[in-house]
Write a structure and sequence with these properties.
Blueprint (H helix, E strand, L loop, with lengths): L2 E4 L7 H11 L3 E5 H6 L4 H10 L3 E8 L9 H19 L3 E5 L10 H17 L3 E5 L10 H11 L4 E6 H5 L16 E6 L9 H8 L10 H10 L6 E3 L4 H5 L2 H22 L16 E10 L3 H12 L3 E6 L4 E6 L2 E6 L5 H9 L2 E9 L2 H10 L18 E3 L5 E6 L7 H4 L1 E3 L10 E12 L3 H11 L3 E2 L3 E5 L2 E9 L6 E7 L5 H9 L4 E8 L2 H9 L10 H10 L6 H8 L2 E4 L4 E6 L8 E8 L10 H14 L6
Parallel strand pairs: 1-2, 1-8, 2-3, 3-4, 4-5, 5-6, 6-7, 7-8, 9-12, 13-15, 17-21, 22-25
Antiparallel strand pairs: 9-13, 10-11, 10-16, 11-12, 14-15, 17-22, 18-20, 19-20, 20-21, 23-24, 24-25
Helix pairs in contact: 1-11, 3-4, 5-6, 9-11, 11-16
């Protein structure tokens, strides 16, 4: 499979872009004319630099406002085309993108456009290049790939073909199935872009909000299935205009782009046969069955503080590692590991971020398949030396320098607790009603959210919710959920845009730690809270105004709201069921815990309560003399 990406898709100078694109694994680039003009090297030097990176120039673009012009603009357009063909010869590429005209003097007409392209094809043939015609979604007369194809068909020239772009088709709501009727050899190039569903001007939407396939809401997979059905075997390329990407890390954006293409073509091939593409062998998306453990890096006096805090949360120190300074704290199937090692990954995490979550263990059907898929998708593997008697648990690098370990059913990974840990004498797990880890909340900068949603969505069998705004007294936090079908593995991804928000403060104080809060699932929230209060648990205090508002919005059985208020339990209800939640105060490092009960199929996360929870946390920070931000 020949993969390509437009240079306009990522930030940096042209050499920086090429370096990032090549390291991500792409085969070629669409060279955007602006990037060429801004570079200080001549066309032959640029072509040589691109090839020295192991890349081909798959397309030169864009050439605007060509077809259906009156004189003298028509003659000038052909003169411009000749100059661009000469430039392409020096660069070493043979395909140019002609996008449908937006010129105010364009006359329109299928036959007129076809005649212009046929004549341009003669010029292109004499200069050894080809012409690809693309329908811009906002084109003056041609804004539909079906019209563009009819123009190319009537032009009937070997050097003239059509270029298809998923955004221009799907953004206008055009059914991509019509693509199947186009002969594959007349499709000269395919560009892909996704986008969130936003009701706005097409041009503005396209220029600012495109993203990688799988990051938005367009059915790019169905578009690509139609393309593959034609017999097309040329480059699959990304053309992404996105304000975040233009200011982002070019290496990260390029990696995301490559990952999105590999995952997309894998999805396409699993629906119907894909011929003519040498696709990488890759296991299907991995099924997950929840979080096996969350590991904290912690040292010094904070070990005792965190241990005491876990005790009030109902955890029991159940086991110690046989070779290392690791403790296993457990209640139900929820496991917290305290890593007090002074060498290795946890020690590095402690030195960089203090007390923080450094490792997450995920239960998967096959750890081997998970790592195999992650490798093809460009994830960074993680390894460190094993001591005698330790099991090899595959792992990759995750958010904020953390690690994701995979506890595979097929490999018997769950035996790690018996093989590597020895029980603490007379330890007995408390019966608090806590069953397992319900979800984790990962905090990141807003600019990273698309990247990490793509990471989880392409590796695991998960779906994502629409992005929502969470109101903080000092700004907005963007939040998106990724979860599997049965809800056994849930993550909330929270993007902070300012350090003034609680999420932004956490990022700043922890130097980018990955997990801000851990939610534990209870089968009876009242039994859980009463058991914890007996251990000294102090819940986050909610205001009386919050409960007055609850009484106005919901009908409760007699006495229920009074019980909730007595224990600072928050409430939400949707069309499926009810949700109860209570929060701990923050511990060293800024992490906090949540206890939840989901009744009758509730699948949300208590989103309406988030502003009141955040306000309460900030009030508590002020009363304890802690800076808010």
């Amino acid at each position: 499979m020949k993969t390509s990406i437009a240079t306009v898709s990522i930030s940096g100078s042209l050499p920086e872009k090429l370096d990032a694109i090549a390291k991500a694994g792409f085969s070629g680039i669409e060279i955007f004319e602006q990037d060429f003009i801004a570079h200080d090297g001549g066309p032959r030097d640029v072509g040589r630099m691109i090839r020295d990176h192991g890349l081909d120039i798959t397309l030169f673009q864009p050439f605007r406002d060509f077809e259906c012009l009156p004189e003298p603009e028509r003659t000038k357009a052909f003169d411009r085309a000749r100059r661009k063909f000469e430039l392409m010869n020096e660069l070493g590429t043979d395909l140019i993108l002609i996008c449908s005209s937006c010129h105010p003097r364009s006359l329109g007409g299928i036959d007129r456009a076809a005649d212009d392209l046929a004549q341009l094809g003669d010029l292109a043939k004499s200069m050894g290049v080809r012409v690809g015609f693309e329908a811009l979604a906002w084109g003056r007369h041609v804004n539909d790939h079906r019209d563009a194809w009819e123009i190319v068909r009537r032009a009937d020239h070997d050097q003239v073909g059509i270029i298809l772009d998923s955004f221009h088709t799907l953004g206008r709501g055009i059914d991509p199935e019509s693509i199947r009727s186009i002969p594959g050899d007349k499709i000269f190039f395919v560009q892909l872009a996704d986008a969130p569903k936003i009701d706005m001007d097409l041009l503005y939407w396209s220029r600012h909000f495109r993203n990688m396939p799988g990051e938005g809401d367009l059915d790019v997979q169905r578009f690509m299935q139609a393309v593959c059905a034609t017999g097309y075997t040329g480059p699959i390329s990304l053309e992404i205009f996105n304000d975040q990407f233009r200011g982002g890390n070019p290496r990260t954006i390029a990696q995301d782009g490559y990952r999105s293409l590999v995952a997309l073509m894998d999805d396409v091939s699993r629906v119907e046969p894909v011929k003519g593409f040498d696709l990488p062998t890759i296991p299907e998306r991995v099924a997950t069955d929840g979080v096996s453990f969350v590991e904290f890096a912690v040292q010094g006096a904070e070990v005792a503080n965190l241990s005491e805090f876990l005790t009030t949360l109902g955890f029991t120190k159940a086991a110690r590692h046989r070779n290392k300074a690791l403790e296993l704290w457990q209640q139900g199937d929820a496991r917290i590991v305290l890593n007090c090692e002074t060498e290795g990954h946890a020690a590095h995490a402690w030195n960089a971020r203090g007390t923080s979550v450094c490792d997450i263990g995920l239960k998967v059907a096959s750890a081997e398949d998970t790592v195999a898929r992650a490798t093809v998708l460009g994830a960074d593997m993680f390894e460190q030396p094993l001591a005698p008697g330790e099991m090899k648990l595959p792992a990759i690098r995750g958010l904020g320098g953390s690690v994701l370990h995979f506890i595979g059913d097929a490999e018997g990974g769950a035996r790690v607790w018996d093989v590597e840990f020895e029980p603490v004498e007379n330890a007995s797990l408390a019966d608090t009603g806590v069953q397992a880890i319900d979800h984790l909340a990962q905090t990141m900068s807003y600019d990273e959210m698309l990247s990490w949603a793509l990471f989880y969505g392409t590796l695991f069998d998960m779906k994502k919710s629409p992005m929502v705004d969470v109101i903080d007294p000092d700004g907005l936090v963007r939040s998106q959920v990724v979860e599997n079908d049965d809800g056994s593995f849930r993550l909330t991804l929270n993007g902070a845009e300012t350090h003034r928000t609680l999420a932004g403060e956490f990022l700043a104080r922890s130097f980018g730690a990955s997990v801000q809060h851990i939610a534990l699932r209870s089968d009876d929230i009242f039994r859980t809270v009463e058991a914890l209060e007996a251990r000294g648990f102090e819940a986050l205090q909610m205001s009386e105004n919050y409960y007055s508002d609850l009484a106005a919005r919901f009908d409760f059985p007699p006495g229920l709201m009074e019980r909730m208020q007595a224990h600072n339990i928050l409430f939400d209800r949707d069309d499926r069921g009810e949700f109860f939640q209570v929060f701990s105060q923050r511990v060293a490092g800024g992490v906090f815990f949540e206890f939840v009960q989901r009744a009758n199929g509730y699948r949300g996360f208590g989103g309406p309560n988030a502003p009141f929870r955040i306000a309460a946390q900030k009030r508590l920070g002020r009363t304890k003399g802690m800076p808010e931000h």
